[in-house]
What does this fold into?
Amino acid sequence: MTTELADNVRKYRRRAGLSQEELAYAAGVSPGTVRKVEQGGAVRMETLHALARALGVTTATLLAPDAPEPVGRAEEPNRVNLIRLRAALTPPVGLADLETDAAGEEPNLRGFRRAVQDGAVLYHSDSYKSVASQLPGLLRDANSAVAYFDGGEEHRQALLARAETLQLAGRYLTQVRQYDLAYTALAGAITDARTVDDRLTGASGVIGMCWLLLRQGRLDEAEQLASRTADAIEPRLSRATPDECAAWGWLALRAAAAAGRNNRPQEARHYHRVASTAASAVGREYTGSFFRHWTTFGPLTVGMKGVEARWCWETPAQSCASPARTPCRRRRGRALDGPATTTGTATDSMSHAPTHGQAI
It folds into this structure.
C-alpha cells in the first residue's frame, strides 16, 4: 500500500478529530486495522470504503496515484524496449524540423494492420515482451504511413492504423505501469480517431483511458469520462451492431468500476444496469475487433464483472449471496430498466445517474 494512502488516512482522521480507536469504531473495523493502514500496510478495498465513509470523504480522496515502478537494469531487455518505445512516442521537438526517415515506397496498409492485429493477439495471450519488442517498429511504420499518404481515403486509413497501434501501446504501457507514456499513446489514439470521425475507434481509446485513470486512482475523472462518452455513442438498440453495443457496454463497466471503488454504490449499480442492457442486446459473448472494445463482451462478461464489483458495493457476505443478475438473452421489447427500446435508444441514459448527494 502506498505511503500516500497512509498519510491521507492519518491526515483526514486528525482533521476529523478522531483517535485511531474512534475511527475504527466508526468504520466497524479493529483499531489494529487502522494502525496497519496508517503504517502503510495492505488493506482490502471494502475496508478502504468503510474508512472513507467514516471520515466523510470519497475513496478517491484517500487513494493516491500509483507511481510507475522504474525499470531496473536486471530487466535489461524490457528496459531497452521501453527506451525505444519512449523514443517512438515522444520524439524531440525543436525550432527546426528534424530529419526523419521518409517511407521509400508506398506502405502496405493492409499488411501493416495485420501486423498490429497480430500484436493485439500477443497482448491478449500475455506475451508482453514480444509486444514490447514489436511496438517501436510498428509506431515508426504508422507515422511513416500517415506522412506518406497526405490526403484522401488512404490518409484516413493510415490514421486509423496509427490509432490502433497507439491503442496497443497504451494497453501495454498501462499494464507495465508506465502511466505517463500510456497517457501519451492513448491520447494520440483518441486524437487520430476523432480526426477521421471514427467514433467506435475513439470510444475504444476512451475505454483504455478510463482503465489508465482507474489504475492511477483518478476515480472521479474515470467515471465522468466513461459516462459522458457512453452518452455520446449510445446506440439505437433495434439496429445497433455488436461492436456498437460492446463499446457502449464496456464504457458502462468502466464507469461502474470507478463509482464502486469511489464509495458511490448507487451510481455503480446504475451503470451496471446499463452494461446489462448492452449485453442483452448483444445476446452472447462477442469478440469482434480488438480495437473496438478491447476484449470479449456479453452477458457472461457483465455477470462476472457484477460479482467482482459487488465486493466493492456490498459486504463479502452480501456479494456472495447476490447472484449475477445479468440476463442471458434480451427481453422482448423492453430494456432492463426502462420502457420499450426496440425502436429507440435506451431511455435510462448514463447521464441520468443519481448525483453523489442523492447517493449519500
About this structure: The chain has 18 helices and no strands. The two ends are 27 Å apart (CA to CA).
